[in-house]
């Protein structure tokens, strides 16, 4: 973050693009209160979407879903973002392939152009493919599914980190997935014994848990706590985990 005059920039907007769901911006800044720690942030419209300062739950989404599973595993991640869930999934040696579904081409471009720290590593890993597509459309159409190269393919894990929660949506059209009927179509694309994982910024939602129980065999909500140095307190998010058992 050095300008042509050799001065370190405190704030820099790396990219700005207008999308169908709002203005999307990638920015980088130094946080003086954290010893000038460099932070990457994403905003959408007037809302704050994600930050590299807080990624513990994105990592936990992959680790809670994949730890202890025997490979080879074929995995889908819905939502690329800054890449933390995808990177965490690839750290598991059992993962044979990873398809990352991202609806916004700008976000894929950030990784391909090296504008975000994890981009180069994800793009260089031969197991990983970044696919421009609407996760929610793919989830609701099992005959075509998530992998454009393998229509109708099933996966051992599908991990979703797009909406803020099952109730706080980036796009109201996403809501159908969080109902039992939408979850059934998603479950058709998961192997028996496979798992669906979801990140949520809200507390566990009993109505959504009941919808998961209608479709999957084993369902739980894990509270993931992490330090929030900006607020000087602990914060928490939820990871939903739903395993597809026999008869689900």
For the record, give the distance between the C-alpha atoms at the N and C termini, rounded to a whole number. 51 Å
* Amount of helix: 10-25%
Main sheet attributes: strand count, strand direction, barrel closure: 7 strands, mixed
Number of beta-strand segments: 11
User: The CATH topology of the largest domain, please?
Assistant: Rossmann fold
Number of domains: 2
CATH class of the largest domain: Alpha Beta
SS content category: alpha/beta
Residue runs with pLDDT of under 50 for 5 or more positions: 1-8
Topology:
Blueprint: E1 11-19, E2 22-31, E3 37-44, E4 47-51, H1 56-66, E5 73-78, H2 84-90, E6 95-102, H3 105-112, H4 119-124, E7 128-132, H5 135-139, E8 155-160, H6 180-187, E9 190-200, H7 206-215, E10 218-228, E11 233-243
Helix pairs in contact: 1-2, 6-7
């Amino acid at each position: 973050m050095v300008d042509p005059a050799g001065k370190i920039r405190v704030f820099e907007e790396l990219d700005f693009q207008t999308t169908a769901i709002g203005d999307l911006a990638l920015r980088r800044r130094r946080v003086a209160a954290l010893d000038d720690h460099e932070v990457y942030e994403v905003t959408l419209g007037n809302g704050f979407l994600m930050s590299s300062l807080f990624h513990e739950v994105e990592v936990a989404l992959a680790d809670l879903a994949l730890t202890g599973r025997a490979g080879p595993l074929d995995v889908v991640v819905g939502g690329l973002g800054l890449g933390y869930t995808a990177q965490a999934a690839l750290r598991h040696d059992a993962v044979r392939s990873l398809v990352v579904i991202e609806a916004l081409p700008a976000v894929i471009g950030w990784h391909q152009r090296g504008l975000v720290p994890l981009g180069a590593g994800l793009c260089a890993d031969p197991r990983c493919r970044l696919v421009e597509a609407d996760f929610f459309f793919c989830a609701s159409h099992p005959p075509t599914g998530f992998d454009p190269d393998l229509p109708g393919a099933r996966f051992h894990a599908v991990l979703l980190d797009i909406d803020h929660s099952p109730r706080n949506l980036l796009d109201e059209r996403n809501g159908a997935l969080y109902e039992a009927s939408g979850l059934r179509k998603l479950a058709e694309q998961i192997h028996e014994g496979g798992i669906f994982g979801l990140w949520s910024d809200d507390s566990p939602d009993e109505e959504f848990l009941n919808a998961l129980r209608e479709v999957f065999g084993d369902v739980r909500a894990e509270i993931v706590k992490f330090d929030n140095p900006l607020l000087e307190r602990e914060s928490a998010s939820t990871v939903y985990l739903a395993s597809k058992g026999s008869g689900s």
